[in-house]
Amino acid sequence: MKIKIFSAVILLLVVTGKTWGQQLDKEKLSGIKSLAFAYCWGVPDITIFNSTKIDVKKYGFDQQPFYDFLEKKVVEKMNAANIKLIPFSESQPVYSSMIKMVTALSEIQGKPAPTQEQINQLNNQMEQLQKLQQMVNMKMGGRGSGLVTGNSNAISSSNTSVALAPAIDKNGQEKPGAVIADYYSDEALKVYARMAKDMNVDAFMIIHVSVYFSSETEDGKTLGGFSNMFHKEPPHAIVKLDFRIYDAEEKPIVLFKNKDAIRGYSKEALASFKSSFGHFEWNNGEAEKIEYDAMEQAVNNIAAKIDKGSF
Predict the structure, then answer these.
(1) Which residues of 256-269 are buried (b: 16+ CB within 10 A; e: fewer)?
(2) In the chain, what is the straight-line distance between the N-terminal and C-terminal CA atoms, in Å?
(3) For 221, which DSSP code?
(4) What is the DSSP string of 19-65?
(5) pLDDT 10s digits, 200-215
């Protein structure tokens, strides 16, 4: 089935350069009166040793519950820090609305808002995409849940599913299947900020999630090198969070980006892990347990990094 997407969101982007580093404006952070949790996303890939992808059908498990868990933990920490998040019942209908995003994109580009005919066309296309999503879910045993808008293979938490991926450019186009958090374009941030203004909030928050299983130590050092893949230390679950807060003028307040992303490291290793010459066995239930642990540790580490009261 070939589906055309509204002209403002046809997908293609050439990304030039990457930015690294982190930023924290504690004064601006402490002055936030209200915050919208705009987007918690990633790709449903699990890797071993940060390079070898697991066969999802044979070894993988659904990542959607982990995104929801992460979202809940972040909200808990924000509330503990007296940073008011607006309810998901207010933010979710805004950030998950293709119509609202396309309208915001048109506005920041100085273009007229979509006509009713265009809106009707887009709604019809989105209905087709939802049907396609259901087909993907059936084929993948539920592991295909998430966004199917455009060519993105990203998934997101239940309450923070934006209609446009974060790589949209000035023409409303997007890099197909963007998986690296540095692909937040200026245009995407402007759209997210414009929608934050519509909700009368001071700032918005976005998180990109990466999950892998490795024999790295908690400080990122590798135990045993490449040979570790075959017969040495069992892997721990490691979660990396590209965590950002921007104000309603898309100016950064908190940036923990890519290379300097916040890490969560499971307390326990994957004891059932066995490997020899690239073939591996493990226990999914055990793997899920230590991934949850790594998720919680990552959120705790955000709290420690920001170091603002209990957050």
Answers:
(1) bbbeebbbbbbeeb
(2) 47
(3) P
(4) ---EEE-HHHHHT-S-EEEEEEEE-S--EETTTEE--TTTT----HH
(5) 999 999 998 989 888 8
